[in-house]
Write a structure and sequence with these properties.
Number of helices: 3
Shape: globular
Helix content: 10-25%
Radius of gyration: 26 Å
Strand content: 15-25%
CATH topology: 2,3-Dihydroxybiphenyl 1,2-Dioxygenase, domain 1
Number of domains: 1
CATH superfamily: 2,3-Dihydroxybiphenyl 1,2-Dioxygenase, domain 1
Strand order of the largest sheet: 1-4-3-2
Distance between the termini: 60 Å
Number of strands: 8
Structural class: alpha/beta
Order of helices and strands: EHEEEEHEEEH
CATH class: Alpha Beta
Largest sheet: 4 strands, mixed
CATH architecture: Roll
């Protein structure tokens, strides 16, 4: 991709204390979210989805060995997730990949009653928010399904036309 729309995020670069640990947790999560491995070099790795890519790097220039989301700087990254079911699957599997579910007592509405999300933190202190469809999206989907015509019941194969009749010549009963 040569150039994306103005305002589209180009990349995010996260400096991490352990490339091995970060590649395991971030690699799993980004892969589950549809990102594909993009670049690899001795001190880093990146994953790409569309025009945006996420970099993890164990830079020798970093000055700390743990990310603190409560200090000035990056608090968390938020990613859209296609369904509430997928939010739950990712939240359940996260513990096997270096993440823990935050705010368990308020999950999945830790962000408020109309905000369905899982908040995860990895071993190095990075937080992600996995945002599922909200009530407005569910309402729109339900209305669209209600307005869609019901599928016709399967009535089996069409009857064979009578001798000398072409298919479709006979009007359905009640239409004469």
């Amino acid at each position: 991709m040569d150039h994306a729309a103005t305002g589209t995020l180009h990349h995010i670069e996260l400096w991490v204390p352990s490339l091995v640990r970060a590649a395991a947790s971030w690699g799993w999560l980004l892969g589950e979210l549809g990102y594909e491995t993009y670049q690899e070099w001795p001190d880093g790795q990146s994953w790409r989805a569309g025009p945006t890519y996420v970099v993890i790097e164990q830079s020798p220039a970093r000055t700390a060995f743990r990310h603190d989301r409560c200090r000035p700087g990056l608090n968390h990254l938020a990613f859209y997730v296609g369904s509430r079911e997928q939010v739950e699957v990712l939240a359940a599997e996260a513990a096997h990949h270096g993440w823990r579910l935050m705010f368990e007592d308020r999950h999945p509405f830790a962000g408020g009653g109309h905000h369905y999300a899982a908040y995860l933190e990895n071993t190095d202190g990075y937080e992600v928010e996995l945002v599922g469809p909200g009530p407005d999206q569910f309402q729109a989907e339900a209305e669209a399904q209600a307005q869609a015509p019901a599928p016709a019941p399967d009535q089996g194969p069409a009857p064979e036309p009578a001798a000398g009749e072409a298919p479709g010549d006979k009007a359905p009963e009640g239409d004469a």
